[in-house]
Amino acid sequence: SVAIVKRPDTQGVALPPQSEVYPQLYVNAQAIQQAQNYKQQGQKQVFVQSNNTNNYAYYQQQQQQENQQPFHYQQQYQNFYDQQYQNQYNYESRVAYFTEDVNLNQQFAYQQIYYPAWFNSQKYSQKTQYQNGEAFYYYLQQILARYNLERYANNLPTAQPFQFNQKVQPGYNPQLQYHNGQPVPARPNNIDINYANSFYLQQLNNMDRRIADAIDGRQVKNINGGKQALNAENGVEILSN
Fold first, then answer.
1. For the whole model, what pTM was predicted?
2. Does residue 66 lie in a domain region?
3. What's the CA gap between 67 and 155, in Å, rounded?
4. Buried b vs exposed e over 36-74: b needs ≥16 C-beta within 10 Å?
5. Do 49 and 21 share a structural domain?
6. pLDDT per residue as tens digits for the range 166-211
7. Quick one: 107 and 25 in the same domain?
8. What range does the domain containing 122 cover?
């Protein structure tokens, strides 16, 4: 994919939607299983709900209850609230409609293709593309701003900076499976990141420290071992690459 978007002789080639090439990475396993069952039954036009917030199941149940008895708004709303947020860690599911959005996740994947962190223009004999790092950093800023806006709308605090010495409180279950049928591992509540691979954890710590030192010192070392000053024009571009 990176070669297609970078090579000058493939600029007219359009990448297919990744959700169609790798649907198991964008649609939850239950929906894919239902689609496979319908296909085996010979059905061609069916409706499969890919749900990550459980809201659809609630509204479907609510509609069935409305057909049987008068609807009492206060009681139904309270039942919904209790089911969704009775666990102290379930509050993150309020913004699952945003974090699990297929198109949004596809866009993030495309950003990794157009602005790969490992790409070296000189090594691959490509024309140097300036402001790649700055453009990717700007994209992440916009995503974070919109994410915090959605959290505000759902009465949630803003996203907090990641800390290596603190536990990750809310768990996460992607509800996905790999192409071989194995489920994507879920993250339990209150996980201690120090139990992860210590080698990679140390690398992340070193990278975080080096970036902070470069910002404080307003300079970095280039590939030749020399020092390069950071300023308002090139600082974000250099640190983001």
1. 0.74
2. no
3. 32
4. eeeeeeeeeeeeeebbbeeeeebeeeeeeeeeeeeeeee
5. yes
6. 888 888 888 888 888 888 888 888 888 877 777 888 888 888 888 8
7. yes
8. 1-60+75-161+172-191
Establish if 166 belongs to a structural domain: no
Residues 113 and 207 in one domain: no
Which pair of tokens denotes residue 117?
């962190």
User: pLDDT by residue (tens digit) across 97-125?
Assistant: 899 898 999 999 988 888 887 777 777 77
Contact in structure between 93 and 86 (CB atoms under 8 Å) = no
Place of tokens 């803003």: 158
Beta bridge partners of 227: 221
SS (H, E, C) the chain: CHHHHHCHHHCCCCCCCHHHHCHHHCCCHHHHHHHHHHHHCCCCCCCCCCCCCCHHHHHHHHHHHHHHCCCCHHHHHHHHHHHHHCCCCHHHHHHHHHHCCHHHHHHHHHHHHHCCCCCCCCCCCCCCCCCHHHHHHHHHHHHHHHHHHHHHHCCCCCCCCCCCCCCECCCECCCCECCCCCECCCECCCECHHHCCHHHHHHHHHHHHHHHHHHHHCEEECCCCCEEECCCCCHHHHHHC
- Per this entry, what is the length of the chain? 241
